[in-house]
Automatic annotation (TrEMBL):
Species whose genome carries this gene: Flavobacterium muglaense
Taxonomic superkingdom: Bacteria
Protein name (record): AMP-binding protein
One Pfam family of this chain: AMP-binding
Domain (AMP-dependent synthetase/ligase): residue spans on this chain: 126-324
InterPro entries membership: AMP-dep_synth/lig_dom, ANL_N_sf, CapK_Type1_Caps_Biosynth
Amino acid sequence: MDASSDPQIALTDAERFPLLDDLSFLNTLKQDALAPKFNFKSGDRLNAIQLSKVKAYKKNYYSTKLFWNEGQTPIWLTDYVQWCFDTVPFYQNKGNQFDSFPTMHRDDIRKQAPLFVSNEANLEELLVYYTSGSTGAKLDVLFDAVSQANWLPQIESVLEDFAISITESSNTTAIALICAQEKTLTYASLSTYLGGAGILKINLNPSEWSHPDNAKKYLEKYKPQILTGDPLAFMALLALLPELRPKAMISSAMKLTTGTKNKLEHYFKCPVIDVYSLTECRNIAYATEIGHKVIRPDLFLEIFDEHHDVPLPNGKRGELVVTGGSNPFLPLIRYRTGDFCSLKIVDGIPYLIDLEARNPVIFFTKSHLKINNIDISNRLSHLPLAGFKMHQRQDKVIEFTGYSNDISPKEIIQLLNVVFKNDIEIQATIQKISQNNTVEKTQYSSELLDDN
């Protein structure tokens, strides 16, 4: 977050948690001698009406998950789209038929955010989330307390597939978001939805702690039930060898390789779940052997041609497009995610097949044989890589930078030589994972154009 984006109005803890009378556990989390130098104050701000809406959201969409069958649309879609046409300025004067409605892009939201606010939204409940812009231009996302809190029922629905539940108690830590960055917001908070259970966001960077061992000791003391974060942060946590046994670890934001997943599960003795989510609408699906299993009945997912506003049939690969959500400050109709996959319905549940973040990139051997980045990802997935960047120069040389504490550049070169049929020059470096990483998300890039 930029300094200019810092909150301008400070709320009291009573205003952050209007339904929680006992804030003693919050004070314990913040004032512990082992605690980090928290730099932010956060609270869910749920009042009684808002909490009832979060609970209704869970009941309506997750008690019995009803998606859609091939060739059909969800039962809620017609009413939702009409509501958007009637109350959201951006969607007005663009026709009133969903089948012919054009797709929209991230830039539409970035440049015209106020036009996406429904005239039924309560502006007094407005919250703003500032993204880092690590995969593109910075995007400020508007939401309210209810749509923010709805991420918890979404996470619960994922955990239910693993027979895991979060204990609701005012003296336990439910979730800890683990970061390993140079700088980020950190805080101790509570969840009204989870009965006052603790919510932590911590940064493992030693500069944020009074003593380098305190991060490990603090987590061991408060034993969060669920750990969330990205693979880099989880591998940085693993390097501390903490005595933690969470119920589950939920990885997002970066690609989780099978090698990293196995390493984390072996040490922490719990499922490590790879969740696909977007800042614009939160959690969407999680990785399984079939593909990414969709968890959100309140989202309608389509696959579109990358360059034209043409929906593709199930089984065809293209760009994932999203309609729906529960945020009155950002209702989505046919929003292009910039991520690519195909869609498959299995026993009434949608799966995203071969999901790959961002635009597909074609690489070439010296003999100009095409290599799809999906094939590269599949090969690399067996290695304990927390992330990587791969670029092909104009002279076809491959430049690879990986983040791992367990593998060598030689291993990367050997594997990529197999993928590229021993017909490529590769320059590989491996950077060690630390508690204050300053790396970007996994990405592919090339200076060569696919001329078909």
